[in-house]
Structures
1.
Amino acid sequence: MPHTSLHRTPMQGPAQILTDISDGIGTITLHHEAKRNALSEHMVQEMIQAFDQFKQADVRVAILRALPGIKVWSAGHDVTELPAGGHDPLSWQDSLRTLIREVEVFPGPVIALIEGGVWGGACELVFACDMVVATPEATFAATPAKLGVPYNVTGLLTFLNVAPPHIAKELLFTGRPMTAARLERQGVINGVVPAEHIGAHVFEMARTIAQNAPLAVSVMKEQLRILAGANAVSPGDFERIQSLRRVVYNSQDYAEGIQAFKEKRLPHYHGE
Amino acid sequence: MPHTSLHRTPMQGPAQILTDISDGIGTITLHHEAKRNALSEHMVQEMIQAFDQFKQADVRVAILRALPGIKVWSAGHDVTELPAGGHDPLSWQDSLRTLIREVEVFPGPVIALIEGGVWGGACELVFACDMVVATPEATFAATPAKLGVPYNVTGLLTFLNVAPPHIAKELLFTGRPMTAARLERQGVINGVVPAEHIGAHVFEMARTIAQNAPLAVSVMKEQLRILAGANAVSPGDFERIQSLRRVVYNSQDYAEGIQAFKEKRLPHYHGE
Amino acid sequence: MPHTSLHRTPMQGPAQILTDISDGIGTITLHHEAKRNALSEHMVQEMIQAFDQFKQADVRVAILRALPGIKVWSAGHDVTELPAGGHDPLSWQDSLRTLIREVEVFPGPVIALIEGGVWGGACELVFACDMVVATPEATFAATPAKLGVPYNVTGLLTFLNVAPPHIAKELLFTGRPMTAARLERQGVINGVVPAEHIGAHVFEMARTIAQNAPLAVSVMKEQLRILAGANAVSPGDFERIQSLRRVVYNSQDYAEGIQAFKEKRLPHYHGE
Amino acid sequence: MPHTSLHRTPMQGPAQILTDISDGIGTITLHHEAKRNALSEHMVQEMIQAFDQFKQADVRVAILRALPGIKVWSAGHDVTELPAGGHDPLSWQDSLRTLIREVEVFPGPVIALIEGGVWGGACELVFACDMVVATPEATFAATPAKLGVPYNVTGLLTFLNVAPPHIAKELLFTGRPMTAARLERQGVINGVVPAEHIGAHVFEMARTIAQNAPLAVSVMKEQLRILAGANAVSPGDFERIQSLRRVVYNSQDYAEGIQAFKEKRLPHYHGE
Amino acid sequence: MPHTSLHRTPMQGPAQILTDISDGIGTITLHHEAKRNALSEHMVQEMIQAFDQFKQADVRVAILRALPGIKVWSAGHDVTELPAGGHDPLSWQDSLRTLIREVEVFPGPVIALIEGGVWGGACELVFACDMVVATPEATFAATPAKLGVPYNVTGLLTFLNVAPPHIAKELLFTGRPMTAARLERQGVINGVVPAEHIGAHVFEMARTIAQNAPLAVSVMKEQLRILAGANAVSPGDFERIQSLRRVVYNSQDYAEGIQAFKEKRLPHYHGE
Amino acid sequence: MPHTSLHRTPMQGPAQILTDISDGIGTITLHHEAKRNALSEHMVQEMIQAFDQFKQADVRVAILRALPGIKVWSAGHDVTELPAGGHDPLSWQDSLRTLIREVEVFPGPVIALIEGGVWGGACELVFACDMVVATPEATFAATPAKLGVPYNVTGLLTFLNVAPPHIAKELLFTGRPMTAARLERQGVINGVVPAEHIGAHVFEMARTIAQNAPLAVSVMKEQLRILAGANAVSPGDFERIQSLRRVVYNSQDYAEGIQAFKEKRLPHYHGE
Ligand code: NI
Ligand code: NI
Ligand code: NI
């Protein structure tokens, strides 16, 4: 990254992200290492503010990254913020969902720059970016099945849109981390670049885009968003799915998954 | 596979499959080598029974395989069971279609473990599984164009859902076998593992899934199934397609294709 | 290519393509090197005539190629034919769109054989073919963002149908050339073959298909076409998109992009 | 009704419906006047049993009615069974929804014979029948807006499918009863017949249908069901709607509506 | 009708229709009273020729009628032309389906002028016209359930598009004739006019349209056609429906219905 | 109307509407009789401001009306504001389209109260309201075919959503006025009430709705809006339609229609 000073976004409580604008390129750096950059309500609000600030500053391309050399890019949902059983943990107002919509409607491309592990909801956030570049050591793990959380339909659609179905299912059903190299080979991510070069590489990619015609780029992004969301589902199917998801978040396993996570032990599931 | 004894499913006539349940993982082993594991009406009925048995036994993950060391995993449709010209060879009640729906709605993931050649309808069956792991020697050939059979829409959708369109077309239009290595590179299958390790590898994958929350896995599978089938076609387009398919199965070429197969010679087509 | 003589298609003005039929395989060779095989109105009309001629001659497979050893396979739209600002540059009657529909409804598979650079609209034309084989030196660049042209929805759907979304976005947002090797790895193209062998390789592929049952191949191609176009968009979304595109082709940047191209200089955009 | 004896369906607790089969025509008579035939869990279970019994007895047409001369055909949901705030009152497993699906998939037509008032959920049940005949005194009132209940999407689709949108909105937004004469004029119901003749009239209509080819009738009903449910909604829109509905059933107004109903007073709403 | 001379369309065998063009308005008069204007293959071919002739003559509006004073406007399908059991009686190439598509894509509005009875397939043909005007004595009967014929999806969509679902079901399930007055009241037809005035009334309506801007009318008709056919059905649902229809046309009841019709007796159905 | 004083909305230039809020009910009264309440850019902006003001004032129901006793409720588009040929006259940013979206997303129901003639674009505006009540003398005329204007898809969808297709086509193809009585009979409008009572009648209807639970009403309106817009059109069909519409607004007839209107003479069309 050719620009060294990182500025704090003013907000109540200590900031959890850093932002920077340079050459028409806005950078958001996750900076809450104590919580492994978990996507807390607070951090998400800061990111939304940052995207607003970028829009006002006519930013053409945004980069989403963590600090260089980090071990965990983001641990995903702040599990302590998930509701206890009986309520949908992933509704439309959920902070992750709100952030993902923000990324999708930001008028310029958003590039994710990944070092370290990307877990759970952070995995969907990264896949929802327009492009993804990672270091060879980066890994991606989709963990709802590990936690017992019933993922929502638009969330699964993010996975299905960027990954071949067999690969998406392996990610989602095993919950095991997948390497950057494997995901690049299958077109899920755009490139694998060593840590020492990745900042310059992504910035160069952003600069190329920023020199293109911004309106043309912006309308293409919006057209692709509409096409990607055009999997039409009948109301009957959708209500049935919601009902199946409700069984899950009312189940003992759901409570066990969250409890186990908080107690830092393996969950023990019975399918009930 | 860590469990050695394989049990026969009780049924009239000699069984064509073996089934086994261990550690919450059910295994179906195709075992009708005399007919190269062709997907006969009889074998399909046994498989459907096995899936029912798995559901009652709370099986969390199913594995679909053939005997180790086999040359042909399955030859696909039993061509002798296809109707002569004048009737749709691939209707909703066709045994292959029924089996594929069974795989799709089975409440846990189904992993295909592939050694040897996978031909014709068996190719669709394998692609309809949730994950696929193969040995380096495995090959996949989609043969309807070779036989002159007009594939049906949901069948083609299975190919289009798991393979990039240019690759799906190469498979379907040439009918030539494609290697496991190539399909893995393009995200169509999940892994290539040498024959000596593949059993343990797949069983380990299944065990990982079986330890996750079963309800969460199950509802995600169902959501992905709905999304994958959501290619909405207008009634007008569909009836036109049915009509084009009818031209094919009423053609001389269709009769020639089946005849040539039975006489073990190359067909000679005129496009009529 | 086993057949050496290339015949000119009779038409007013010097022909811009060569055509040939042999063994039930029709070949169209772009042959307007002076204009880097730009897809002019004239060339497109010749290609449409050639496809008609192929249909009458019961051609089973078509090959679309340029002369061996060429540096630019096709430069895409003839920019001098694009309308000045204020009118949609990519409407349904646009010659490129007409040609692409012709490729999609041609009753047999169309294989693109690529040497050299493929730019802009030519990139979509090649991706709209049923299969693509390229030499290691071939590159593919989608340039609307460079020119400031708002691409249309069916055009973007061609990209989204054949490439993983993150890769499609990289192509479209950066406008930079992507290598054949990278596109093959991600399933966008079918093979990379050295220049000296590519002719024979593609002809062999075509011959394999031509020996299969033509009606079965033809109806599968049509079914896949219907399924690939089945991304249903609501009229409201569509009219909003048209309106966004109109903003683009009425913008100063659009005029600047075309002007800069004609003056062979880099455009300078302001997002207005 | 030409057949006078009505038989009780055996079940635990006093039966709330009567059933009868004669001439291939099954009749369900709501018979829980003490509760104004509210669609309690218990009554719905009995009706589902009755439809099962009809299927086993090869019933060709079903009639759904109340006792002759009744003032309230059905008061709709048993409001005391609705959940207090915080949970979706109209989920897929809701007894009304289950019953409506039962009516929709019953293999023969279901004719509603209406005397008296039809309120709330009963209004949707009647509209979901295949045909509706009413006495001149019958009235229909859709009351979710009066109670403050957020109706679900498939429920609203039932209204939108059978009534012109402006009429459906008047029913749903005002909550006021609409007369049979008005609904007949606009094609929402099939006929208005004086109380003394309505039984014979409906039975004659049923007999006409019962003499037609049962398989042809049955498959047409199923085709029309599929077409009527084919309003495809994008996952994003659906999740947003679910979220809006959640705001409603978490609101003070929702609690007030149910409370007021139980206290038999007018509710007082604040839009919060 | 202000124009008295009716010209025969030249064709092999005695003509079954009369055609006339005057003031930019083309009139097709069914004229095969011996067969009650049954929609035979021959008559349909003549009608398609007439529409072609109208297009070449820049006809702005077409009128479809029978001779004044006739008792049966059209008896619908020529039942003797329906296939015996085992083959789909209503495929895409069926002459009725072809004619209906011709009416739908004719560039100007088609007005049906109805005196007498309209039966079976003729009922769909009339509903597929853009407007319908009838005498008070006219009646409409949809008879597939009487004959045991499984109607196809686009055919049912024609009914569902023009009639409220409860009315469409009454028509289709009872097979009984419905009066013009009732259909006018519910918006299915546009007007009821006494026999002595109907010719002048319809011609005046046609003249009003013919004086409007033809291109604007034509594109609106096409837009409405697209919107009316936009009930998207998933491939899985469609193939299931085809399979249910196949059960019907393979049934004993189907054969019995056609046999009874030919023997001019009531059919006797068993649901098998 | 129980409230007598009407307040002017502050805005530059003389106000063209009056607004009033009373009992939670907001009323907009068109008041530009000199231009027959044509929907000018200026009037539309005032109406949008009024809806904003209503939202801030927690208005539960809006009434849209003209002054009592008026002869022309609204003449529709201000034809002098339509673009000359060569540009789409009905794009997404068109003031009528913007206003209609405003009506559709206003959180409470909007009731149109109609006296006098409703012409052209005003006809769509009225149909886009949630309910419509008219005096016996009111008439409705859809005039694009008279003017030669190619209507847009969402505009036609408004007609198709509220009127039976045969009636919608009669309105659109003839351009002739239809009476309130006829439209009420077919469910297109909600009631016909004599001029002396209509104000009180509509206000009473609004008050009934305003006493219901506002959140429940609001979410039902939004759900119905989504369902009504869910006619999914494929990108290919849409672009073809746009292209057909372009032919129309580039035609001589289009210019002639606008010219004739300005010169207050009948247009003379040639279909070119
Ligand atoms: Ni800085
Ligand atoms: Ni030659
Ligand atoms: Ni009895």
2.
Amino acid sequence: MSKSYTIAVAGATGAVGTKIVELLEGANLPITKVKALASKRSVGKTIPFKNTEIIVEELTADAFSGVDIAIFSAGGSLSEKFAPEAVKHGAVVIDNTSHFRMDENVPLVVPEVNPESLREHQGIIANPNCSTIQMMVALEPIRQAFGLEKIIVSTYQAVSGSGARGIAELENQVKEYIDGTPLKELTAEILPAGGDKKHYPIAFNALPQIDVFGEDGYTLEEWKMMNETKKIMSDDSIKVAATCVRIPVVSGHSESIYIEVEKETSVKELQELLAQAPGVVLQDDPSQQLYPQAINSIDDKATFVGRIRRDLDNPKGFHLWVVSDNLLKGAAWNSIQIAEKMHELELL
Amino acid sequence: MSKSYTIAVAGATGAVGTKIVELLEGANLPITKVKALASKRSVGKTIPFKNTEIIVEELTADAFSGVDIAIFSAGGSLSEKFAPEAVKHGAVVIDNTSHFRMDENVPLVVPEVNPESLREHQGIIANPNCSTIQMMVALEPIRQAFGLEKIIVSTYQAVSGSGARGIAELENQVKEYIDGTPLKELTAEILPAGGDKKHYPIAFNALPQIDVFGEDGYTLEEWKMMNETKKIMSDDSIKVAATCVRIPVVSGHSESIYIEVEKETSVKELQELLAQAPGVVLQDDPSQQLYPQAINSIDDKATFVGRIRRDLDNPKGFHLWVVSDNLLKGAAWNSIQIAEKMHELELL
């Protein structure tokens, strides 16, 4: 059997969509054609792909005619509207938004962690949240080897997680500051959450709000990390608590993670395990000041892990520092990996 | 009895020293004279104080002649050398460096938390580390009311903690970036730790290293938070784990803190308690997107607390977000408060 796919990218002109098209060039997938879909105002723009240029078409239901794989990264409401249309047209949907993630009929997949869930798909597969994905890549090998009882994570998230407009907002604020504008008066129109009422400067600040607040005082971003973790690891008994914070970094999410494992282990064993783990690059040598850094993660597909150390009060407690490019492994690259894995498992 | 003090500020031209002289203007202390001491190269500079100007003198042993209170903020090695000299000359020393903090003959004091420790002083009183102080102000009222078993803290620390040169380094890197220098090539000569071998850009980055590494994989900054907490709270049984991270913020340290208390309580009770607590300003209303922010803490003496929420797995577990100006409550203001409290307790 020789298959080759027509792949549509919905939201092809956005921060993540652009990366998806770029990464498809090197993907381990036979590709006949890539269709770039976006809103009306982007129609006619061109996007380079291999030795040619793709002309952006409007995102409509009919645009999915003849499409085998549709990768969505155009916002939750557009996924809600068009993903079922793409499925009706015979495509398999890989959705980057949060819209379908907790739907019990939709597998939520990190290919290094739960590839077998793909077999249960009914047309739509969800890509987890960026901050969840890198944590899963780092912790799943530990869970498999030593069990995992508890996770407490505090994040240091980049503005690119809120799209190209978030990056522009940070860069503009930095320029305003250099030109003499006081910190509290920097122009803020997007962050901390595009859809929320108030906006605060992110330059030279730390904002403990990503996405909107729920009634229990947790933000939606925190809720995602906690609930997606349980779904991806297929274990509702894992205790997970998240505090999600935006900081003035362009790209690359960092996470300070505390875990409690079930079986005794050591820092050395964890380092050896993670050095071999799929998708992980271990950077952990305090004597050389070697640890993961956001700026070094940019444009790299790996999840970087370092600063592994034992808790001084709990022999089964460990601390880690986990960093990854939120636009790649946190979004675009994970989507491509899902498509590759489905091809490999002959699910397409 | 009517007392009035001659106060020396050692390191008067530094980031913290400057703030100390500023704050002495409004201090609740009868002051006869302020002496500004610094290294030879600053001698002759003037510092405004009330309606006059103080001329900077050289930091020598003899400079402490006639001094009642000597506030040190000139680095650990200068405190080591000159603090005992100041004591010999009859001064009480309030030291901002880490040099004497764990000395069992030296009280380590946050005036809102353990003022009575001042009575045991033998000439030198230590000011705790900036990141420890704000955590103590927020957690001591909780410890007193409900007991405190465990603390897990991840910090988001500003560059001003590394002095005026740290601020200049961040600002220069930001300018380089705006002018087109790639992130990995920004000029780094100070951070993450002035005395360490390698230096990394802090602009648009998060560095999980503050101060040098110890053999157990924890940094000295983390070690300080863990050990100073136990000393200040006079309780070696409290479990404390810290991950200390520098982020591109000019001033204002933020902390994501998880605690486990001994007695049952609620978010509402904790909010009511902290709203009344000395030195604390509660900013906790998710419905109004109200929470502490680094840029709002600058030049304020308070410790701001918000985002208080119950852990979803442990009814005695709570999460908080704590922010304070590291140069004020984290350093200069706490020193002044120590002097005021010693005056109040008639220990001078």
